[in-house]
Amino acid sequence: MVNPTEPHDSKPPPYAPSPAAARGGRDVVVIGCGTVGTSVFLHLVAPDVQSRRAAGSARHSDSLRSVCLVDPHPVGWGLAFGDDDPLLMCNSAVNLNSILAERPTDFLDHLRQHGWAGHPQDCVPRSWMAAYCHLRYTRARQEAINRGIQVHHVRAAAHTITKQHNTYRVHLDTGPEITASHVVICPGVHRARTPDGFAPHQHHPRYLDSPYPAARLRHLSAPARVLVLGTHQSAIDAALVLCRAGHHTTLTSPSGRLPAVRTSLAAPTRSHPPLQRMTQLDPTDPHLEDKITRHVVEAIRLIERRPLRQQVSTSPDPAQRLREEITLAETGACLWADICVPVIEAIIILASVLPPARRSALITRFAWFTNRYATATTLINARRLLTHFTSGALQVAASYPTAATFTDGLWHIQRPGAGPEYFDHIVNATGFHPPQLSWGSHNDTLHLDHVSAPHPDAHPIDHLAADLRLRRQPTAPPERIWLAGVGTHIRIPFANHLRNAVHQAEQVAKQVRA
Hints:
The chain is an alpha/beta fold. It contains 13 helices and 22 strands. The strands form five sheets. Strands 3-2-1-7-22-21 form a six-stranded mixed β-sheet. Strands 6-5-4-19-18-20 form a six-stranded antiparallel β-sheet, with no helix packed on it. It has a five-stranded parallel β-sheet with strand order 8-17-9-10-13. Helix 8 (318-330) runs antiparallel to helix 12 (379-391). Residues 1-21, 266-286 are annotated as: Disordered. Residues 29-188 form the FAD-dependent urate hydroxylase HpyO/Asp monooxygenase CreE-like FAD/NAD(P)-binding domain.
């Protein structure tokens, strides 16, 4: 049976570039080594490993000399999947989580090899995904080294990139710098959003800016009364961890609505012609949004004649709505879930060719789909939530706070329609800002998004071409710097959709090696 644990590798010695300086070849730096960074690495070294295996040669590569991965965490163990709390589950199914573009069942195969007997549409703990990434990296790293490619992991965070004499210099928070001929940036998310009305309290010791890592919640003394700001995926994670520890937990958000319920975000089980046609719509059509809606409705009706409103609950009570939608999912009545991945991927294709303003309007128009269905909660988590609702440990507030003060060791909360409420802790679970890269005032320094706000003299990068390469200006020649994963949100909606990010990793790796 699968029982992965986080690797505890020792901190490596300082990175030194390849001594074979006179030889040709690319020195690649991959910044960010979560799932997408790991995928980039695998796609980078795989062609070389395969070609050398066929040739039976261990000579130095003419195309790829070295790969340096930069991340303060073990490879594969990023924020998204790197928490080992077993309550934190992948929202996407096993059959959607391969990090190899040409092997879509690779994660499933990995789990089968380790004794897992579940269904391909099931969800598993996120730490299993991280362990899978780390194992694939470890094996590919050794094969690459055996065949002459230098591979190193620097346990640090990259903050800026400068260019000198056609060479990039990656500056680290630990002081040194790394030189590279090519750079691939796979940024994660770091800066927590600030909920309305809570900006003055961000540094208060009884206010947690994020529920991650989950150990922050486990360390709270129980029992306590905890107010969780948010009602979506991060808030659900927080509620499950807090209720397990014996805390009385209240969720609150402006909408007061939990996501819909489905088994998982899984690879589609059938083709959906209306959604395939949707990718061919005219992006300049002023009625584009209406036509997208018609294509989605047609796709749902081809699966199930019942309208969407009969496949979800309309109860105004969050607990009752959750209970009814669990029943719908258990009985196979919410067939809308089968179109979620095709809709996401069709919108990615269509939106990538839209002007920024039109793309933003499209995303805003379909926020209802994203907030309620694309990010629906898994059936396993919904059942856990319902248990806590039933026991009285969990509730959703009927309105959002209008005032919060901390007095005499307690948070005093005021909200419409309720008397004063008191909490021991507040947990912000409203998510994270997408990563924002920026050029310095003279376009000479690339500032990478980290925990702090963007550099005051920098201007944000708001343009990304189809090749995913950065440019100092939209009309400037491309740099040998690529983006992959969530950082491509400036061009791609649903930039955190793993299957698309893995295809980006493959695309970028091919360009780097070309």
